[in-house]
Design a protein that fits this description.
The chain is an alpha/beta fold. It has 2 domains: about 150 residues, Rossmann fold (3-Layer(aba) Sandwich); about 80 residues, no CATH class. It is about 35% helix and about 25% strand. The protein has 10 helices and 10 strands. The strands form 2 sheets. Strands 6-7-8-3-9-10 form a 6-stranded mixed beta sheet, sandwiched between helices. The chain has a 4-stranded antiparallel beta sheet with strand order 2-1-4-5, covered by helices on one side. Strand 4 and strand 5 form a beta hairpin. Helix 3 packs across helix 5, helix 5 crosses helix 6 and helix 6 packs parallel to helix 7. The protein is globular.
Length: about 250
């Protein structure tokens, strides 16, 4: 059995009177694609924000690769190998595709952006950026303005930016959000390729995608884990079926 790359113990977070994360326990094994599902308001995005460091928990502990990262800021977690894509894209639309990737690499390494022209001439940086674009099929758009790309290509670019930081753990928040059928198929193929070599925590509403990709699934309700296990066990779990899965296994949310 693969060892755990991430262990979350008794994680709790409230916003005023709203409990977003309620004594949550979670284990992500090295090399697996672990999906987090649940209805809107279940606390999925708040969980990812705590794992990436954008939000600090009120209590509990996050252990990543045997190191306690509970209080670390995002840039330090990035250096340790955690990368996140967001539910809503946050790209530099006026810049070239390859420059967005380069910025992600620089941010990981905490370089100064002061001398941008020499950075553009850095062969190693450009090679790393192009390799990330090649992985997700955007290498031919490297010198296009990001604003000229489609919504689906924006999502691909966000994944490429995360990959360019060479993460040990990839946090993907709704990568299929707003996708058309063809664009969705493209992202699905990318994720199928990535799951062979990256540890991925995936939040996704599309249950066809979740059950096609996930090695394990955790179900959240009001910030609590109600079930965690293989896709087959989740489909058979009565609590999950009653709350979110219809008789045909589709999510009701």
């Amino acid at each position: 059995m693969s060892p755990a790359i991430l262990n979350v113990s008794n994680l709790s977070k409230t916003f005023g009177g709203v409990v977003a994360t309620d004594h949550l326990n979670l284990e992500i094994k090295h090399g697996e694609l672990h999906a987090i599902i649940g209805p809107n308001g279940a606390g999925k995005t708040t969980l990812i924000a705590q794992l990436s460091g954008e939000t600090l928990p009120d209590s509990g502990e996050i252990i990543f690769r045997e190191e306690n990262i509970t209080a670390l800021p995002p840039f330090k977690r990035s250096r340790l190998g955690i990368a996140r894509s967001f539910q809503i894209t946050s790209l530099m639309l006026e810049m070239d595709v390859i420059d967005n990737i380069t910025l992600a690499i620089l941010a990981r390494d905490s370089h100064s952006y002061k001398f941008w022209k020499p950075v553009r001439e850095d062969i190693d940086l450009r090679k790393a950026a192009l390799n990330a674009l090649k992985e997700i099929g955007l290498e031919e758009r490297a010198f296009e303005k990001v604003g000229n790309l489609s919504h689906g290509e924006h999502r691909q670019l966000e994944i490429a930016m995360a990959l360019a930081t060479q993460p040990h753990l990839l946090l993907l928040d709704e990568p299929m959000a707003g996708m058309g059928t063809e664009e969705g198929r493209k992202i699905l193929k990318i994720l199928q390729k990535l799951k062979k070599r990256k540890t991925i925590l995936l939040i996704e509403h599309d249950m066809d995608v979740v059950f096609a990709l996930a090695d394990r699934i955790t179900v959240l309700v009001y910030g609590q884990v109600i079930a965690s296990g293989s896709p087959q066990s989740i489909k058979k779990d009565e609590k999950v079926r009653e709350a979110y899965l219809g008789s045909d296994g589709e999510m009701n949310c």
